[in-house]
Amino acid sequence: MGDLSQSGAPHVQHIDHYSRATKAAIVVQALLREGQTPPLARLPEDVQVRLTHEISNLRLVDRATMNAVVSEFIAELEGLGLAAPADMEGTLASVAQHLSPGAAARLRSEAAARVGSDPWAQIRQMKPDELAAPLSRESIEIAAVILSRLPVNRAAEALSRIPGERARRVALAFSRANHVSPLALHRIGQAIVRDYCAIEAPAFDRPPDQRVGAILNASTQRTRDTVLEGLGEDDPAFADQVRRAIFTYAHIPTRLYPQDVPKILRKIDPPDLATVIAATQGQETDDGATTAYLLANIPQRLGDTLREEAAAMDRPRRADVEKAMGVIVATLREAADQGEVNLMNTAPDDEA
């Protein structure tokens, strides 16, 4: 910006009588004079309006004053440690994934009702499937206004979610959307946000297939098979989702990395391990393969000790074996949830 930041400016006291709004107007005008393009459109509309009024009231500003204001502005920028989003919409976009569903929903509702907020910022964050609701339920003209305010790619995706005949009528209404006043546009945005963005927090933190899968993980094999058989008859698609969510003892070799086996087994009581080993070691079954996998990936001395304990046991009851397997799986899932181990991803067509 040439000589705008030179140190030959007067003392700060020379500009103390200027308001911060006036100083902002001077900085923006100086940037524009230098051919810069400050992103004013990213500011809230009321701030844009006030700033424009301030610029129109500047009239003439001498070079010394301009240099002093710009120097003060640069000094403040250099002293900044961090800059947070300027509005609730931006803040939510950056932290929503770290909040509980209830807190995120509450904040979205508050933002939707806040006077002076930009409703279209929230609407632009809606997913195409979410946008399909107002595009299908509102009038053709309102749907055209909504699409006109979206980025091109998002608008195209949203348009593809509604029936072809309605999509054609919405496209024809674009010419009428040009005559909407800024005030009407703001009110339309507020209504859409109020009706479609202020979504209540879900009652459950996991989808139904994962909740059923977690319950069946802790159930006996007989119960698990019976429930899955019944689900398969009543709702095959949901039954398939539940099967993918189930994580049993037999799935461990496809989910637990070899290097993490000792870390998990150290958390489990030796009697539980011995019970499972006594019941499955040497079997040509999925459970037998899992036991072989676990024993192959722990120190040999520990493995020999567990084998000796298992050999000294009477043959355990199936109920005791399933309980011990449940303990192993629950311990593994808890460690994964707490980030102590990472699980291997399974292919979409796997049953794990």
Automatic annotation (TrEMBL):
Residues 19-120 form the Flagellar motor switch protein FliG N-terminal domain. It is a peripheral membrane protein. It is found in: Bacterial flagellum basal body; Cell membrane. Gene3D superfamilies: 1.10.220.30. The keyword tRNA-binding does not apply. Residues 128-194 form the Flagellar motor switch protein FliG middle domain. It holds the Pfam family FliG_N. This is Flagellar motor switch protein FliG. It comes from Ketogulonicigenium vulgare (strain WSH-001).
